[in-house]
Each structure stands twice: as structure tokens, then as C-alpha cells.
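>> received
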Amino acid sequence: MKHIASFFLAIIALSSAILAQNPKILSPGGAQFEIYRAGSSYDLVWDTTTTTQGQRFRFQFGTSVSGPWTDLTGATNVLDSNASSTVRRGRFIGGFRAPSLQTLTGYIRMVLISDTTRFGISTNPIVVERPTPTKIDSVLSGTITNNLFLSNQKIYGLKGYVHVVSPATLTIQAGTIIVGDTVGVNSALVINRGAKIIANGTATLPIVMTSSAPPGERRAGDWGGLLIYGKARINNPGGEAAQEGGVADPLDKTKWYYGGTDDNDNSGSLQYVRVEFGGIALQPNQELNGITMGGVGRGTTMRYVQVSYANDDGFEWFGGSVDAKYLISVGALDDDFDTDNGFSGRIQYGIAQRYTTRADQSTSQAFEADNDATATYNQPYSSAIFSNITAIGPLADTSFTPNARFGAAAQIRRNTRQAIYNSAFIGWPRGIEIAQTPTMNAANADSVHIRNNAWYGVKGTWLNLAGGTAPSGFDANWIAKAAYSNVLEKGSTTAAGIDNPFSDVTFNPSLKQGSPLLTGANFTRNGVIAIDDAFFDKVEFRGAMGSTRWDLPWANYDPINTTYKAQEPPKPLITTPGGAAGEVYRAGISYDLKWDTTTTRSEEHTSELQSRVDISYAVFC
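>> returned
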């Protein structure tokens, strides 16, 4: 009996020792010489044999094994459990955002909240690298309350979040360059309700908002991108909402809030604008997008806008009614065109170009369409109409094994009423997914339209029904109904006849001679969706363009390596004397001096008169 008691006491002692041991961090710092980039997000991983399921931990960062320690944003109360899609037993996806500093001796500390004497420190020091910021000419900071003009003869740098608030208008000259703050420091350009941005570039002088990192070192998420908030309707309870991520102050709704009652609200104009490398993580897995729009009204102009290397979605609309034409999303991490919370705009001509290695843990698509996050029947319904989109997926050949983080070309879910017409989807793991019973009911009732579209190169199913029971008579054959005029060429991406769809820098989405996509578009209204609206150009081709490109010369498919410079100031142009051939002037007589005021500013100029005759000069006034 004594031996049995001793045995059980030993087991209890061993169990107590296991329960009392310190947690062990596996990553970051599990191996020697690990290198992390400032501002980028990485998983926190720990050894679950050193923890107990259900325990909560605080994660910290220091530049010495002995501290001092700084809490990691969003990782101060992490449950060691399969609590969500991002918090798993032994892993917090995206939980470590590398700080904005350079160090060879970075450490992570994991502290048990219920007993702070028990903690683990990463085994090896980690290296954090931060790119040297681009030299700038002028800093934009704080809150802009009065009208401001930005000249293309300067490179502007953001310092933190820069807010434009009502009634100010920010006017940006064609060809202007704006860069984010130092990589790893949160920064973004935020146009708030009642304020305006007038950013009208040209095809030869686009406006560029990009990373502060030098050529070759730019990465997705180097800054927060462009955010525009308006007063159009959204379907959130109460008719307004705050930007997620903990940045909004409910006592100051002049910033970070969106939504109202005016669908014709005007937030300004974006034309020939590029936004590159946006999408910081405000909190783990709560990233900003390339361009984030909340409640933006249809009085706003959007034409010829490119988003490159967004660290979440390329374009995301939270409600609102803004229309747009000629949009490009290149190398987004998550979705290219993401619609939520009652967005009802019309979009024609869009390009999505995906890279095989860039996809999000939440599953990446060209389209992600929701009514809202919980599939409510809140109105206005998300009811955007997209036409003439070309979405190039990650599969140049269907024999390739796709990145498991890519999903369908379009995911229509959560009770949305979205419509997609006259579009082309090339090289995707799956064609389209309609998810949740309310969305299937809407499609079955003809409130969701997927028509006159073409898929080329689909490895899996054409239509996948997910997350609910389909109504009677609604199944995977819905997409192939003859009346909807959708077509599938399952095995071949080349059959689409697109010029060069799977190259990065030399990407060319125009159509070759003989492409089946040169014809087949249809803008005849058949049901509740107003595809016949005068907003839509009644073109013949399906996809974003025919044989003529509209993306050049303003778009850029290699922004990582592009060198950006401010525009040179124009030289003053004299129009008189000497503006015309054969002008004759008499010595001693006075004449007006005239110059082109578009080449000068309000400043003094020295006039130097040169004559071929030494002995006498005309007098010019």
C-alpha cells in the first residue's frame, strides 16, 4: 500500500512540475539568425507541451534578453485554445508585428497572466531590419483643417495618420509623390466626412502614394494607404460606423467615422492615381486596405485608379454608393474587390492580377461580397453591379497545384445582392462560391446576377455551394443556365486569348485577335439589376478591355523597383519679345515683356536681354 501511495505522490509531483514549467516560444527566435522586417506581421508560435489549454498569455518585445519589455499590440490577452481562425492552440496568426526599429538582439517574452513569475523568452535573438526612408521635401502631419495644395515639385512624407477634416479640401497636383512614414510606423492619408480630396493626375503624370522605402525594398503593408469616408448610406445599425482596429474615438466623430443619409455625397475626385504598398495591421489580422472607402457617395469621381501590393484588400467598400471605372488591383494579399455593409455602387472596367505566393490565411478571391459580417437583412442591401472585370488568378496552368490559401474567383456570401456581368476569370482553383442559405435564396429569387461571364482554366468546381442548405431547385447547375450565358473552358487558360496574363512586369491584359472575349457582352436588362443603366458603356467585349489598352502609360506593374522623383520646376517661358518668327524691334523704343504665367509662380525673375548688336539696345518695360 505504501508503494502505491508513493507512486501516486510521484505522479502528482510530476504533474505539478509540468504545470509549473515556463512556456516555450518556438517562433520568433526558434532558430538562429532569423530576420524580420519592421511593420510586417508574423505568427507567434509556442510549445503546447509547456502550456495548458485555456491559459492566457501576454506577449512582449525587447531588445535585450533582460528587457525592458513592451507589450505587443493586440497580443496582451491571448487564449491558448482553438478560439478562432487566427488564435489556435499554440499559434497566434499574425500576432507579432515587428516594431519600427533596427536591432540585432530582438527577443519575444511570453508571460502567463495568472502567474507573471512564469514566462518564457525566445531562445535566439532575432534581427529586425527597417529600410532607410526616402528623402522627402515636405512633411504632412496632424489634422488638415484648411484647404491645402500639394505641388508636384516636392515629395511629401506622411508623419503618422494625416487627417483631412471638414470643410477642408486637399488638392494634389498631377505628378505629385506622397510617401508613408518610416516603415513600421503607422501612417495613412485619411479623408474624413465632409472633407474632399481632389487628386486628378493625368495619363503621363499620375499621382503616386507609395512606401517610404527605397527602390527594391518596398513591401506590402509599409504604410496604411488611402482612406475616404463619406456621408452616404450604410447598413450598420444607427447609420454610421467607426473604422475597426481601435483607432476611432467615439467622442470625436470628425475622424475615422463614416455613413449618413446622402447617397449623392461628394468626397472629391481620384483620377490617374496609384496607391502602393498600403495596408498596415492596426491590430493583429485587422489590416487597412490599399484604398478603404466608407460611406462614399456617388458625387465622388473615381477613374483610372491602381492599387498595388495591398496588405489586405485592394479596394474595399463599406457601404456607400460611389461609382467607378478603370480600376486595377495588383498583387493584393486578400481580395481585390471587397464589398460590405450596403455598398450599391456601379463599377465598370476592372483588372485583378494575382501572384501565386501572395494569398491570405482568410482565403483570397478576386471578389468577396457580403451584406455585412453576420449576414443580416439590414438595409440597404449590398447590391453593387460590376461589369467588364478581368480577374487573373494564380494558376497559369490547371496542372499546377494551387496555393491552398486561394479560393474561388468570386465569393458571393452573407446575404449580399451583388451582380457580376460581362467579366472574365482566368486561372482559378474554383470558379465561384455562393455561401450561406440567405445568399442562395437571393440568387434563387433572381436578386443575385452572375451573367455573361467566362471562366478559363478552373481546376475545381465551377460553382460551389457552401455553408448552408440550398433552397429547392437551386443547385450547382444554376451557374450554367442557358439564360445566364455564362461559359466555362475548364482546362485551358490560353483559350481566353489574353495577350500576356501571367507575367508580372510585362503583364498585358488586352485581347489577342480572335479571342472569344472580343464579343459576347450584353447590357440588356432582365430582372431587377439595372445593367442597362446609362452609366455602363455598351461595349461588345467581355473582360476589362478589348484589343486597346487603357492601363498605359499611367499604370505601373513594377512599383517595387521604380525610382520616384519630384517634377522639375518649369522654366519661365517668354512669349514677347521673341514669341514669333521675324519680330522687329527699334532701338530706344519701349515694349512690353510678357511671359506664360503657367510656367511661373509668384516670385521675382531676373531678365537678361541678349542682342546680336553691341552698340544699342531696345528698352523693354
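>> Residues 7-19, 606-617 have pLDDT under 50 and may be disordered.
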